[in-house]
Amino acid sequence: MDVSELRIALFSGNYNYVRDGANQALNRLVGYLLKRGAEVRVYAPVVENPAFPATGDLVGIPALPIPGRAEYRIPLMLSPQARRDLHRFKPNLIHVSAPEILGHSAVSFARRNKLPVIASVHTRFETYPRYYGLAFLEPTVTALLRRFYRRCDAIVAPSDSMAQLLREQRMNYDVGIWSRGVDREIFAPEKRSMEWRRGLGLADSDVAIGFVGRLVMEKGLDVFADTIDELERRGVRHRILVVGEGPAREWFERRLPNAVFAGFQAGPDLGRAVASMDMLFNPSVTETFGNVTLEAMACGLPVVAAIATGSESLVSEGLTGRLVRPGAISGFADALENYITDPHQRAAAGQAGAKAADRYSWDAINGALASTYLRIVRQRQGGGGPPRRSPVP
């Protein structure tokens, strides 16, 4: 069996209606599989004006806006039309990308029809409650995630550190890696534009600390702002450049009144924006990989990040950046101050990061996942059964 014999039904709660690193990775994966001759059908919510065109055939799934976060939608169970389409498509593998209602429905469909299932893990959902004053729910959410992932034949994580965490959390007994790649035609040191910086009011001598991502609290915006307050108390001269949009923008603007907000950027514009920073500060602990961290490294920036899944697999402490205990404001400020005041260290870390980013080729990464697909399908064809239900402690 080879890739051209795969018939994959992919289930996603957000395939293209809001742009983020996870759904861009899924679209790249589908493009790769189609080029290799596989057949792929995507089941996901659709909207009138999606953030970007979908790659491959997309079958709409009913969904409701999330209260308070209307830009996101909660996909519901498989509709009768989607079920009929699934039966006509006759997949030989199910891929689920999120543990929501649609994901549960897809896993149940697979088990009823004796189909293998792979789940990709894109974010640390169990950490979200802590950003909304509900940290006491974290053990419950972790247990629910474990119940979901143990019903799958295998799960894949985007980094070694995330895979190890999933093993420690006993999410599944077959944990593999589906990493992320970076487009070096977009993200590269030579994309830096002093003219673009000047247009935003940044002087050539300004040292710009960058933030890149959706402006939502779970990205660590509070830690970012508190750290900048500490730099200001120390009298360390710097500028802040924020790239991204989101529901917390107004809050972030109030907390950082002197920051430059460049708004949403994509494609070559995003590459230019990242390369025009002087360092990236990523305090988030919710990412499982950290696309923005890799993109910043590819642009030749040192990265100051929290010791968290994803970042600790990408950033080499003291070589390509600094890793700091999550929430340690003084530690983050120390690391940033070091790069602000020492241009030679800043340049050396950036050069090391750009070299390290060369290892991340999209075709090699997606090819590795295709190999995992084939292994799981062969295991089932060889007589391996679906995962047994196991008690969740």
From TrEMBL:
GO molecular function: glycosyltransferase activity
Keyword Transferase in record: yes
KW GTP-binding (keyword) present: no
Glycosyltransferase subfamily 4-like N-terminal domain ranges (all copies): 20-185
InterPro entries: Glyco_trans_4-like_N, Glycosyltransferase_grp1
UniProt keyword annotations, A-Z: Transferase
Protein name: Glycosyltransferase family 1 protein
Annotated source species: Sphingomonas paeninsulae
